[in-house]
Amino acid sequence: MNQVRTIKNYYEYVDSKEVDALLELFTDDVEYLRAGVIINTKEKLEKFYEKERNIDGVHLIDSIYKADSTKDIVIVEGVFIFESKERIAFVDVFEFLGDLVAKRRTYLSVGNELIQ
Question: What is the pTM of this model?
């Protein structure tokens, strides 16, 4: 499976809560950084998606970029739309090891009231 397809599958699996399929996209020793939390094994990632992630909505991908670096990195820009219709922009950085995601980092936008 190519990396762009893997990433598109990732968001589809997250939004539809297909945890088993989602986990197949990651290495066993994945490093997953999200909102200040570090998850560092596939087992902990499963626990996060099964018991701790309490949001519902959909991811809309705006752009996917292949980084020009020595590492195998793909960057995604998008928007998450909550069931309440609120939105938050994000950038996800995926680092691949072969066909699997070895590391994922998420950067979230903040409301403009924090910078005025």
Answer: 0.89
Tell how strand 100-108 and strand 26-34 pair up: parallel
Contact at 8 Å (CB) between 10 and 22?
A: yes
Residue 26 three-state SS: strand
| DSSP state letters, 53-96 | ----EEEEEEEEEE--SSS-EEEEEEEEEETTS-EEEEEEEEEE
Amino acid identity, position 67 = A
Size of the chain, expressed as the number of residues it contains: 116
Tens digit of each residue's pLDDT (9 = 90 or more) over 7-54: 999 999 999 999 999 999 999 999 999 878 899 999 999 999 999 988
Number of domains, the chain: 1
Domain that holds residue 44: 3-114
